[in-house]
Amino acid sequence: QVQLVESGGGLVQAGGSLRLSCIASGVTFSSYAMGWFRQAPGKEREVVATIGWSGGNPNYADSVKGRFTISRDNAKNTLYLQMNSLKPEDTANYYCNRPPPGTWTRAWGLGTQVTVSS
Predict the structure, then answer these.
(1) How far apart are CA 13 and CA 60, in angstroms?
(2) Among 93, 82, 90, 112, which residue's Cα sits nearest to residue 13?
(3) pLDDT tens column, 64-114
(4) Cα distance between residue 92 and residue 73, in whole Å
């Protein structure tokens, strides 16, 4: 059974930085591309960034390109998201999972809340 546990969120001022982590268990983590998603109140969950199974092919939503960096450590079954130059519009709950169409629909974690004050 896949389990995903996100951490690292918090309250930060605009322009600040945070580093999110996601630990995966119950799965051969190194076999899968992974991604970070976010969902703001009243909005649909969206893909923020994705990364290939070996750490290559990072891709980013236009809204975070140049500010966020996705990475992974397969030896630790951990996915990371370094977020710099944060903006109030980055405020959301952040989740990790496989990117569509292979998303583990029953494995969503609680996410980690990021709040950026102006």
Answers:
(1) 22
(2) 90
(3) 999 999 999 999 999 999 999 999 999 999 999 999 999 999 999 999 999
(4) 24
